[in-house]
Amino acid sequence: MGIAMSDKQFGDLRKIIYTRSGIHFPDNKKYVLESRLGSRLQELELENFEDYIAFLTMGPYQQDEFQEMFNRITINETSFFRNEPQLDVFEKQVLPELLEARKSTKRLRIWSAACSSGEEPYTLAIQIHRCLGLRAADWKIEIVGCDISEKVLEIAQTGVYTDYAMRTTPTLIKTRYFKQDGQQWLIDEQIKKMVNFQLHNLKDRLGAKRFGTFDVIFCRNVMIYFDDAMKDTVVQCFSDQLAADGTLFIGHSENIRTSNQFAAMPIAQGFCYRKVKAVTKLAA
């Protein structure tokens, strides 16, 4: 029998979560917090969620506990080459155009804004390396992978993955860019060096500015956890950090409602956007 959470405790806890991360738990999701955090209360030897809220907000380990809590309440469901049709749009349509546009500087910057355990940014690195071929040595490729969870970033930095993470990876990619070691897959060191991982909260627009400008931003299957106000904050952040001719990719079940910032690109299975000014200029 798990520890029950009262409606008031749920209200207090979800407010704390929203204030810190922008993640919104609607009324019908109380059971999610109750089930995912119940075992944590037992580990801490706390009798109820009231004590946990106090521990989370007033205890000497509150910052560490916020991290532990986010590790448990967020779902880090990902894999290499997830949603391959969209990734094909990136590799075969968006990327060649960008490489042509950046041929004078030979510099390309990509932000995987909620990278979880690293499968997405490493996938993008593989695609870029495959596209450039021998030219890769002449280019400066910077891929920044960010997440709110320290736990998943630690996994990402190792570059070591299970069969489950590889379940959507084409065989040729496995052969070329991974080394199998028993039940584990080790990513190629050349690909690993292309990605830099950073702890980052998407609510922190000021913190995002330190990353500089990006040519491509990927933020897939994250905004489904945000309310409209938080979505607007995140979209504005992406607009600020994206180059004028850059591209934003989002999840297939998401959309951008701030139409004055971005316009959808008319590419099937792309789920990608350009800044409104850039789209207007292209159409002129």
Please outline the major beta sheet.
7 strands, mixed
Based on CA inertia axes, which overall geometry fits? globular
CATH topology of the largest domain: Rossmann fold
Number of DSSP strand runs: 10
**How far is the first residue's CA from the last residue's CA?**
64 Å
SSE order, as H and E? HHHHHEHEHEHEEHEHEHEEEH
Strand content is 15-25%
Mind sketching the topology for me?
Blueprint: H1 7-21, H2 30-43, H3 49-58, H4 62-73, H5 84-101, E1 107-112, H6 119-132, E2 140-147, H7 150-158, E3 160-162, H8 171-177, E4 178-181, E5 184-187, H9 189-192, E6 195-199, H10 205-208, E7 214-219, H11 228-241, E8 242-250, E9 262-264, E10 272-275, H12 276-283
Parallel strand pairs: 1-2, 1-7, 2-6, 7-8
Antiparallel strand pairs: 3-5, 4-5, 8-10, 9-10
Helix pairs in contact: 3-4, 5-6
What does this structure look like?
The protein is of the alpha/beta class and 284 residues long. It folds into 2 domains: 7-73, Chemotaxis receptor methyltransferase CheR, N-terminal domain (Chemotaxis Receptor Methyltransferase Cher, domain 1); 84-283, Rossmann fold (3-Layer(aba) Sandwich). Helices cover 45% and strands 18% of the residues. The chain contains 12 helices and 10 strands. Strands 6-2-1-7-8-10-9 form a 7-stranded mixed β-sheet. Strands 3-5-4 form a 3-stranded antiparallel β-sheet. Strand 4 and strand 5 form a beta hairpin. Helix 3 (49-58) crosses helix 4 and helix 5 (84-101) crosses helix 6. The protein is globular. Mean pLDDT is 91; it is low at 279-284.
